[in-house]
Amino acid sequence: MGTSVYNHDFYMLDGQPTGQDFDVKFAFKPQLSATFKGPVEVNGNTLDYKRELEKGESAAGDIAGFSDKVVDNDIRVEDRKTGAGVRETGDHPLSRLYFWSIRTTVCPEAYIHMHIEPKREFKWRIAYTFYRVNGASSGEQTGTTRVKALRKTAR
Known about the structure:
Oligomer: single chain
Order of helices and strands: EEEEEEEEEEEE
Mean pLDDT: 88
Largest sheet: 7 strands, antiparallel
Distance between the termini: 10 Å
Radius of gyration: 16 Å
Structural class: mainly beta
Number of strands: 12
Shape: globular
């Protein structure tokens, strides 16, 4: 049996509104679908917001450009203003990448494909690393914190 799965990752960094201070970085050059909507643009491997999202506004759509290699399952969300950053890495290749954000959150939804034989297990791992972005304007001092990786099992 085959299916796909993803985690709902709602990144809200230091309570800042989603906008031009945020970068969403990928391990590959993202390609926005024709139906992608919102004030964003691709610069190299980064999805940049052109401006702050208004209340009720979103940026959303499918993103292509990833390969069938695990190395592409690596996404970073960074706020240059506060210096907060989070890195999400998975141990399986992406099968789909849907992106959704509103004024209060940034949500890259990294799907993986699962094929599970009857009476068998399928395990996957997602790791989250929180860190400080170099060159941030905030005077706060924070270090890198490793959060226990999320392990999932499907039957």
